[in-house]
Amino acid sequence: MQLPLYQETSVRVVDPLQTQLLKWIGNKQRFADEIVSYFPENFGRYFEPFLGSGAVLATLAPSEGIGSDTFRPLMEIWQTLKKSPETLVKWYADRWNKAAKGDKVAVYETIKKSYNAKPNGADLLFLCRACYGGVVRFRKNDGYMSTPCGIHDPISPKAFARRVEEWRQRIKGCDFYILNYEEAMDMAKPGDLIYCDPPYSYSQGILYGAQGFSLENLFRITGECKARGVYVALSIDGSKKSGNYICDLEIPDGLFEREILVHCGRSMLKRFQMGGRTLESEDVKDRLLLTY
After folding, report:
1. Helix 104-117 vs helix 121-130: angle between axes, to the nearest 10 degrees?
2. Please, what sign has the CA dihedral across residues 30, 35, 41, 42?
3. 112 neighbors 73 (Cβ within 8 angstroms)
4. What is the pTM of this model?
5. Rounded to whole angstroms, what are the CA distances from 15 to 33, 34, 65, 173?
6. Could you give the C-alpha distances from 33 to 14, 58, 96, 287, 292, in angstroms and in order?
7. What's the whole-number mean pLDDT along residues 100-118?
8. Around Cβ 243, how many Cβ atoms within 10 Å?
9. Is the C or the N end of the chain the one with fewer CB within 10 Å?
10. Predicted local confidence at residue 8, as pLDDT
11. Percent of the chain with pLDDT strictly greater than 90
12. pLDDT-derived band of residue 266, with 50, 70 and 90 as boundaries?
């Protein structure tokens, strides 16, 4: 089903968040302010059950919110940011200093080996900032993190510490839990807002997908939330290849009231897969579906 596109819609004005804490595939950092601009003016508690980089949550900076995922190393990072931000800074600085003093690629591979032997937030934090293109890939069968070292120099510990402080302030009203999306969405009450950014069917099959995911099931749970008065906003596949291809997804009739196409720029995943070329022909858009 193709919903009508609403071009003339009242939006809230939101300042963009300039700093990025984590690099993550599907990161909404560059257009999180546009997504947030379509959120209701008034709502209760905010939920983000596919947390990832947390760019939308941090841009919104809700007074009360829940960020969640089933991926334990990722949630270890978020829980540490909330409870002990100085520990997060130390994790990053310890690994950055080793890379700066030695062979960057060799140190990166050592950290990656440590992570793959025992997945943990401390190693993942550095790897996601130092890996190629910020495209953190995991093998589906065993969760092996496979992305090579990036050609860039990761930001300094001082710069990272400044970001930690800014993000700590933005997420101070939030709590972070290891939950599957069904559990998190079931917690929402009438008047609450849920923003979902699940793995994309057309573009993220080889990437992080820690939650067993079915779009059909997510639509079902979204319908249950809508029926009990919860607002749901959902980012899913939109157009690929400069808008020439609209991803064909079976969206249930009557579930969403509005659809907005959010311009995402060029695909970092395609750039990774095609050797860093500029990919002018790979301009993409996401669908933002709203139940209100």
Report:
1. 140
2. negative
3. no
4. 0.86
5. 6, 9, 19, 18
6. 6, 10, 30, 15, 19
7. 97
8. 13
9. N
10. 47
11. 68
12. low
Domains with residue ranges and CATH for the chain: 1-10+21-70+179-292 (3.40.50.150), 85-169 (1.10.1020.10)
With left for phi above 0 and alpha for psi between -120 and 50, is residue 243 left, alpha or beta? Answer: left
Q: Per-residue pLDDT tens for 8-66?
A: 455 677 888 989 999 988 789 999 999 999 999 999 999 999 999 999 999 999 999 99
Q: What is the CA radius of gyration of the chain?
A: 19
Which whole number is the average pLDDT over 188-195? 98
Q: What is the band of 141 on the pLDDT scale with cuts at 50, 70, 90? A: confident
Task: Please give the C-alpha separations between residue 150 and each of 99, 128, 132, 183, in angstroms, as whole numbers.
Answer: 12, 10, 4, 36
Q: Which residue has tokens 């089933």?
A: 70
50, with CB counted inside 10 A (0-12, 13-18, 19+), is buried
Phi, then psi, of 186 in degrees rounded to 5: -70, -20
| 70, 180 contact by CB (below 8 A) | yes
Q: Which residues pair with 67 in a beta bridge?
A: 48, 176
Owner of token pair 């960057």? 104
For residue 81 the two structure tokens come to 């940011």
